[in-house]
Amino acid sequence: MTGPVSRRGLLGLAGAGAALAGAGAAAGYGVAREPVAAADDGVVAFRGVRQAGIVTPAQDRMHFVALDLTATDRGAVRDLLRRWTAAAERMTAGQDTADDGALPGNVYAVPADTGEAIGLAASRLTLTFGVGPSFLQKLGLADRRPAPLADLPAFQGDRLDPARTGGDLCLQACADDPQVAVHAVRNLVRAGFGVTEVRWSQLGFGRTSSTSTGQATARNLFGFKDGTNNLKAEEPDLLDQHVWVGDEGPEWLRGGSYLVARRIRMHIEPWDRSNLDEQQRIVGRTKGVGAPLSGSNEFDLADYAATDAAGPVIPDDAHIRLASAQANAGARILRRGYNFVDGSDGDGHLDAGLFFVAFVRDPQRGFVPIQRSLAKSDAMSEYLEHNGSAVFAVPPGLSGPDDYWGAALLA
């Protein structure tokens, strides 16, 4: 490398074993495994069969951004995606975005890297890329759009804000250090000037789902364990069935997935005034250990046929009943959401809730039936407000040293 090397760059070099010269210079591409675990240096493999950040054990922080194209020249978009891939690969390895480090040798030059991650390790950073339905339309690629890549239908009770909905592209940054995640998105957005602009973004903390059997179930802002029955990285057959796009998809998407994002404001104050029994009956689980009301332990199978003198032990309008595979013709999704608190509104109530992210093989057949059922009958809906929504196609992982995000689609 030429020029100054930051401590972050040195950390990344120690983990990766060599400097990256560009999008295709990393070791480990073409590995026939999922990018699940991080090495001891906190580096999650960037290249592989799948994109990292899906079945990777969920990190503690997230910065999600949806962007719109401001240029529709395919060459310009292709060039940006190459540059994004190169920068993303460097940052996930714990390095700066440019070969010559975060700080230029000439103090009158504009730094290539914004610098707030200098001295920070990789922190299991993953960057996941997706395209929305409008991306293909704007670039004249409508004939390559698979049927499932379509805007979600309106759901009962939705109060969607157009400023928090849709997008041509998405970038999901997850890490155990919030500054590392923010740095990654900030620098990719900066690199996109002239080709893309931010449509909306969301910060998240405290994962609300476990994507590996090695993780304990986390809690949402209602205080309940969330995603107990989530699909896990260690269940490849179920992932093939419910998450990864198969031969039914176009070639550029096979082995990838679809990402559904929903910004769900949780009305914290009225929830906090409800008694414990009401909360537990709304959820269908105990608040302490997270057991279904029909069982004693968190991972006991819910018995939806169980009754007592008052009727069903797990109420008909309980959240877990309506979200279950049994109630939705076997449909399942891989959840990867995060809590958020974005200050308060003018009435002094917290603008807080769940930034719901899910990966699914077909959002129209997987996510949509579940959400329709919940929107219609879920007792929890009284305390929820869906005000943001988007769906993106997430291509498979990068297969070789010259591969970059979106290459097969734009070929």
UniProtKB/TrEMBL annotation:
It catalyses: heme b + 2 H(+) = protoporphyrin IX + Fe(2+). It is found in: Cell envelope. Residues 1-21 form the signal peptide. Binds 1 heme b (iron(II)-protoporphyrin IX) group non-covalently per subunit. InterPro entries: Dimeric_a/b-barrel (IPR011008), Dyp_perox_C (IPR048328), Dyp_perox_N (IPR048327), Dyp_peroxidase (IPR006314), EfeB/EfeN (IPR006313), TAT_signal (IPR006311). Its cofactor is heme b. Transmembrane segments: none annotated. Keywords: Heme, Iron, Lyase, Metal-binding, Oxidoreductase, Peroxidase, Signal. Residues 51-205 form the Dyp-type peroxidase N-terminal domain. Residues 217-397 form the Dyp-type peroxidase C-terminal domain. Its EC number is 1.11.1.-. It is an enzyme of class 1 (oxidoreductase). Involved in the recovery of exogenous heme iron. Extracts iron from heme while preserving the protoporphyrin ring intact. PANTHER family: DEFERROCHELATASE, DEFERROCHELATASE/PEROXIDASE. Belongs to the DyP-type peroxidase family. This is Deferrochelatase. The gene is efeB.
